[in-house]
Design a protein that fits this description.
The protein is about 45% helix and about 15% strand. It is α/β, with parallel strands linked by helices. Strands 13-12-11-14-15 form a five-stranded parallel β-sheet, sandwiched between helices. A four-stranded parallel β-sheet has the order 4-3-5-6, with helices on both faces. Strand 11, helix 14 and strand 12 form a beta-alpha-beta unit. Helix 1 crosses helix 7, helix 7 packs parallel to helix 10 and helix 12 runs parallel beside helix 17.
Length: about 425
């Protein structure tokens, strides 16, 4: 989980501030689960993991979020915890009537080698109308993006079915950093090409506050039926390196064409998205709305060029998120000499401006006199930005001190316009 703490050295009253940005994979999986209809993330973990995940997810979405857990005790650690896990899941199923239960296997059961086949058999025998999916999310393997991607992959692996292709139906598997606003924008772009989209997971219709009755579970989001139909789509669009395996699986197993993007932010990324949509639909004319947005993006790039050119933006985000923003920054002349991620993806190692670390690594640079014009980070970057009087642009997960952030748009021509506008106005106001 994200943690903020201080270690004080009594001698010389010297304070060493440690501010991690790494989010556990179990929380990333719990976040992704909110985009599935009547689904619950069930943490097979020690006491506290489930509670902390629920608190952080609720703070981020500002909506009641349902999670559950087995709360592994000492006896389960020694002798195995599947019996207690089964009893806990059964109690939850009887009370809440979910349609999908994602069993998130944490570090303790992963280290001791928990065996789930008999558990799944017993549960499916008793609850034939509920899908039970095990997702491996130990803290020692990756972080937020890995947990998010693992849950999405397992949902497709377990439920996607092949068959005759459905004309004009595509899948969209968004990157972990994408918001409800991003998903809405992609759907709208696809609709302008007369395409219907299955989003996996659909966080635009999940925890959005539209529930008429109280329920911690999302009553919308991607349904089991949509997951099954995803194997019959004509193409799958994935964004971000962490989501590529899910698209590859649909292509290899169900012959669904896979179109992958590292980024659909910025002019070139957005152009490539439109190009691929035109090729897929065999259309020769770009919709008028798309042309208008592209012209507006070029206009704001010109308007802000003198202000933003050679400005230095520090980023503390997940790797996929950094890659998307860098594609935009390169087009408008912004430098990002400090880019911190909880981990470094193999394909990003060649970019020496990206390093694994924490917000403390940015603070060390600032303390040495390094000039930074703005910081892009989640809420945990607030203290650092305030201390050095640097604008903070909130992005990523979690964001707990602003309203409506889930409706921000960061992709396509429209999202790129919004990002440039926010960057320019934040820097100009200082």
């Amino acid at each position: 989980m994200s943690v903020l703490y201080e270690t004080l050295k009594e001698s010389r009253i010297e304070a060493v501030r440690v501010n991690p940005i790494k989010v556990a994979p179990g929380l990333g999986a719990g976040y992704a689960a909110q985009g599935f209809c009547k689904a619950v993330p069930f943490y097979h973990s020690a006491p506290g993991c489930n509670f902390l995940s629920k608190v952080i997810l609720t703070q981020h979405f500002m909506e009641p979020i349902s999670t559950a857990g087995s709360d592994i005790k000492e006896t389960a650690l020694i002798f195995g915890g599947t019996k207690e896990l089964q009893n806990s899941i059964q109690k939850f199923c009887e009370k809440s009537k979910p349609e999908i239960v994602f069993i998130l296997s944490s570090s303790i059961p992963e280290v001791r080698g928990e065996e789930y086949s008999s558990l799944l058999y017993n549960l499916k025998t008793k609850y034939s109308n509920i899908q039970f999916i095990v997702v491996s999310t130990p803290d020692f393997q990756g972080g937020f993006s890995e947990g998010f991607a693992s849950l999405v992959y397992q949902s497709i692996f377990n439920l996607a079915e092949g068959g005759e292709k459905t004309a004009n139906q595509i899948n969209f598997i968004p990157a972990p950093y994408m918001t409800a606003g991003d998903i809405d924008e992609f759907i709208e772009i696809a609709e302008s090409f007369e395409l219907q989209t299955i989003v996996i997971p659909d966080l635009s219709s999940g925890p959005d506050g539209s529930k008429e009755k109280f329920s911690g579970m999302s009553v919308q989001g991607t349904s089991i039926e949509q997951l099954k139909l995803s194997g019959r789509s004509t193409a799958t669009f994935t964004v971000g390196a962490s989501m590529k395996p899910a698209g590859d699986f649909l292509q290899d197993q169900h012959n669904v064409k896979h179109i992958h993007f590292d980024s659909i932010t910025g002019l070139s990324g957005s152009d490539e998205l439109i190009k691929q949509l035109m090729l897929l639909t065999e259309k020769s004319e770009v919709p008028a709305r798309i042309k208008r947005l592209r012209a507006r993006l070029k206009d704001i790039m010109i308007d802000t060029h003198l202000l933003l050119n050679e400005k230095n933006i520090a980023m503390a985000l997940e790797v996929d998120h950094i890659a998307a923003l860098k594609s935009l920054f390169n087009e408008i002349g912004i430098c990002s000499e400090i880019s911190i991620s909880p981990r470094i993806d193999t394909q990003m190692k060649m970019d020496h401006s990206i390093q694994a670390g924490t917000l403390y690594d940015i603070e060390k640079k600032l303390a040495s006199g390094f000039i930074v014009d703005a910081i892009i980070s989640n809420t945990h970057g607030k203290e650092l930005a305030t201390k050095y009087n640097i604008p903070l642009i909130r992005s990523g997960f979690p964001i707990t001190d602003r309203y409506g952030m889930n409706y921000n748009i960061n992709i396509g021509y429209k999202g790129s316009i919004y990002l440039i506008r926010e960057l320019a106005n934040s820097i100009k106001s200082v």
